[in-house]
C-alpha cells in the first residue's frame, strides 16, 4: 500500500475537505484527488464521498483511517524508542489503566517494581475502558488494565487476572442503609453515574437490562471513581462501586451498603497487550513479574 497516499487520505479525513488538506500539506488540490483515487484503485474500495461542499468517509474509509492512524502511531513509537536506544535512555514503562486498577492494584505492584528498578520512569495514564484501550492500540502505552464484562477485541491479547466484587452504596443513614431491597426499588433512587465508556456504568445498565428494570435517573455524573464516592460520603446519591474501593468508608461508617435480592455482582480485571506485539521490552517483562504474583 502506498503510505504517502495513505498519509494524504488521513489528512483529508481529519479536515473533511480535499481543499483544506491540500492547503495543509502545501500541495495542489488535483494532486490530493489523484492520490485518493489511486488509493481507492489500489484497495478496490470507495473511501470517500461528497457531502454538501465537503466530503465524508464511507464505512470502508472509516475502517482504513482507524487502522492507518494506528500504523503511523506505531511508526512514531518505533522512531522514539530507536532514538532512546541510541541515546541510552530507554528506561521507560508506560501503563494505561481504568480507575480501579490504577488506584487499588497498580500502586502495590509499582511500589515493588520501583524498589528493584528505581531508574525506570513509569508513566501511568488513567481513563475509562474505551480511553485506555485506545491509548494502548495507538502505542501510547505498553500495557493496559481494565475492568469490563465480556470484553473482547480483535487487536488485543487479553488475560484474566482476577474477579472483584461490586457493591451498591448509599449515604450513611439512608432508608436503604443495611437493607436488602428489590433492584426495581433501588433503581428509583437518584444515582451517581460515571461517564460514557466507564465499565461501572456499563455494568449497571446491563444489570437493569438482564432483570427487565428501567435504569435509574441520573442524579449527578462524574468523570472518575473517587469523585463519585466522595459525593455519597457527603450525603447524596446511590452508586455501584468496586467493593475494594469503598470498604474502608463502610467500616468507618461514612457510607451505607444496600444488598439487592438475588443479585451478587462480580466483574473481571483484565491485562491487555497488543496482539501483534511479539517481544516485550525488558522493563515491561520485569514489571509483569510482580503482576503475576497477584
UniProtKB/TrEMBL annotation:
Superkingdom to which the source organism belongs: Bacteria
Transmembrane regions: none
HTH lysR-type domain: residues covered: 1-58
One Pfam entry name: LysR_substrate
GO molecular function terms noted in the UniProt entry: DNA-binding transcription factor activity; transcription cis-regulatory region binding
Keywords: DNA-binding, Transcription, Transcription regulation
Family annotation (InterPro entries): LysR_HTH_N (IPR000847), LysR_subst-bd (IPR005119), WH-like_DNA-bd_sf (IPR036388), WH_DNA-bd_sf (IPR036390)
Similarity comment: family membership: Belongs to the LysR transcriptional regulatory family.
This protein's name: DNA-binding transcriptional LysR family regulator
Organism the protein comes from: Ureibacillus xyleni
